Amino acid sequence: MSSADTAFINTCRDILENGSWVREGVRARWEDGQPACTKKIFGVVNRYNLAEEFPLLTLRPINFRAAVDEILWIWQKKSNNIKDLNSHIWDQWADEKGSIGKAYGYQMGIKHKYKEGMFDQVDRVLYDLRHNPYSRRILTNIYNFADLSEMALYPCAYSMTFNVTDGRLCAILNQRSQDMLAANAWNVAQYAALVLMFAQVSGLEPGELVHVIADAHIYDRHIPIVEELIERPAYPAPRVELDKSITNFYDFVPESFTVTNYRHGEKIGRFSVAI
């Protein structure tokens, strides 16, 4: 099985066997208005060695191209408008103009003053990886307290710290909240893809992605689906390759990735997402 399968199965089993229920003060709701209760654990750390394999879940198919499209929407387009996104995953949080407020890509596009000039968070990371790769100050953070009231959804994956070790680009993804069924495999794949893109344009090799989750949870109505999913057979990780001719981060498109030998289980069908 892939490292993504191992981490997903182990984390879900831990939640199911040892997690605690959250039934009071529940913010999220199902489409019928009922509270979306969760079973959760605190403080999950999963590690993925990108030098060995790409962490793409095989228990069920993951729409990798759409996952990359979303990460480029945030990090490359620096957009907060769903009209710039090729999927409909953000539709329920957007206003009539398509905006999700001052969230995600909006924060990435804000410029800040450095001694070398004005940079937004993405361009500063790219600058440092080129000019000062062994710095311990290469990070992003989109959990901007001043703008939270104007965000349709507070950022779940909110911070990335990049670190170059022995010529390999490593990264820590900090996530305050993780819906294991809806988003875990998706987030792991898209941030692993981001590390591959940043490494390539910076003349580095990919290293390790460390995923730190404060609150990893399974929603009550998702539990039967997860229980069935983690008992499925898993397969070796597929081969994921990046177009080596691209040297500018802003030239990447979802089609820049090629996925081969992707064996996976059946789709799980449509399921409700708590909002």
Number of domains: 1
- Our estimate of the beta-strand percent is 25-35%
Specify the CATH class. Alpha Beta
Please trace the helix and strand order, writing H or E for each element: HEEHHEEHEEEHEHEE
Characterization of this structure:
The model has no long low-confidence stretch (mean pLDDT 97). The protein has one domain (3-260): Thymidylate synthase/dCMP hydroxymethylase domain (Thymidylate Synthase, Chain A, 2-Layer Sandwich). Helix 2 (64-75) crosses helix 5 (180-201). Helix content is 26%, strand content 25%. By secondary structure, the chain is an alpha+beta fold. The strands form 3 sheets. The chain has a 6-stranded mixed beta sheet with strand order 1-2-8-7-6-5. Strands 3-4 form a two-stranded antiparallel sheet. The protein is built from 6 helices and 10 strands.
Can you describe this structure in just a few lines?
With 275 residues, the protein is of the alpha+beta class.
Record the SSE blueprint:
Elements (H helix, E strand, L loop, with lengths): L2 H16 L1 E3 L15 E12 L14 H12 L29 H4 L2 E4 L2 E4 H11 L7 E3 L15 E9 L2 E12 H22 L3 E15 L3 H7 L9 E4 L14 E4 L15
Record keyword descriptors for this entry:
two-stranded antiparallel ribbon, 6-stranded mixed β-sheet, 10 strands, Thymidylate Synthase, Chain A, 275 residues, alpha+beta, 26% helix, globular
